[in-house]
Amino acid sequence: xLFNSWLFLxxxxxxxxxxxxxxxxxxxxxxxxxxxSYVFYGWWNWKFLGLIALSTLIDxxxxxxxEDAKDAKNxxxxxxVSCVSNLGILGMFKxxxxxxxSLGQLLTTMGLEAAMPSLSWVLxxxxxxxxFQSMSYSIxxxxxxxxxxxxxxxxAVYVSFFPQLVAGPIERSKRFLPQVASPRQITAAGLESGLxxxxxxxxxxxxxxxxxxxxxxxxxxxxxxxxxxELWLGALAFTIQIYGDFSGYSDxxxxxxxxxxxxxMVNFKxxxxxTSPSDFWRRWxxxxxxxxxxxxxISLGGNRxxxxxxYRNLMLTMVLGGLWHGAAWNFVLWGTYHGALLVGWxxxxxxxxxxxxxxxxxxxxxxxxxMFPLTVFGWVLFRIRSVDDLSAFIDGAFTSTEVDxxxxxxxxxxxxxxxxxxxxxxxxxxxxxxxxxxxxxxRGALYGLLIAGxxxxxxxxxxxxxxxxx
Length: 470
Prior knowledge:
470 residues, mainly alpha, globular
């Protein structure tokens, strides 16, 4: 059931009606949310409902046992039960075939015959998101950052809340569980700001991402057939596609939650205005990057043991963060690349020589100009699926051609311009909901334009969000 489908519109309308109708009884309202969330998830494949229920049960029990444990040993035992169970489920479904297949290829390359077993299991949609969200709760209880949830219903809603279940943001229990446990207020302001986010997210997905995908797929799907400017245009198109697609999903998720009285964390903070690799990860997929920082990087030692240890921890965190995205070597390479950028940027800061001043607009613009091409090339690593295709891209990208790409550039510029104008306004006013500052009539006109744009410039087919596969 895709956000950008008529079926979801009907589903949400029915769920919202039931949600509002039960607003006087919190337990019943939360039960409506849970049923709606399980219907939404089961629509993909009902067989995987058992997995999300299992993760929920394990971490609910683990949280209680951790809080009630009399000694540190039992606390550690139960947090390990949570981590091993969640990572074990994720590993079996997502990584088992990948690692054994890679081992088989390595042995074959060494001249050894290897017949590796294969599970060939279908990857449950959203499993990377809800396992991380559920597992972080147990860790937070262990660390004393949040109390254990005593209500199995409230905890089940926390794990399965349907607006953010499939592709985040990855919520923290300290922030989201109190919202589940408390009565929510549905207000006119919440409904309108939610509507704005939903329409803006749909526009970024249907108009921007899906049309940019036509260019990206044509150029990067077979990089050996293109050269020079064509390949860089394909890389730029994918840069636009993945931002419109993923941030569009996050906006829709936030908007649906706002309409129901919830506040989800902001997952994107104008990432293409980043001035450094670390700034990029403070702006892109914030819920994952902060999760990796808090539960992996800091657990490895963070920056507490000197520069070399810090560089090691950064690299490990980013490599594993790349692998989180998918069981393929291009994601590992993408994570390694971003780890190298983070390390390289830190090393450069300690080198002697002149420094760009802080707080100057021109200096920040220069930093953005350096950072953006580095980000674009990173997306090439993310998008291309084989070593041969990557080699073809690198060989062809720096080869001059006489191919006219002006029309394709014009199309790409046309679909990106509304996003760029909105982002400039968001940056200048330091407000991601800057459109809500407009007078009522202008806001109404904007809503109409967004709807008209989705109708007029849709590609004609309902395309799945990229991050559904993770």
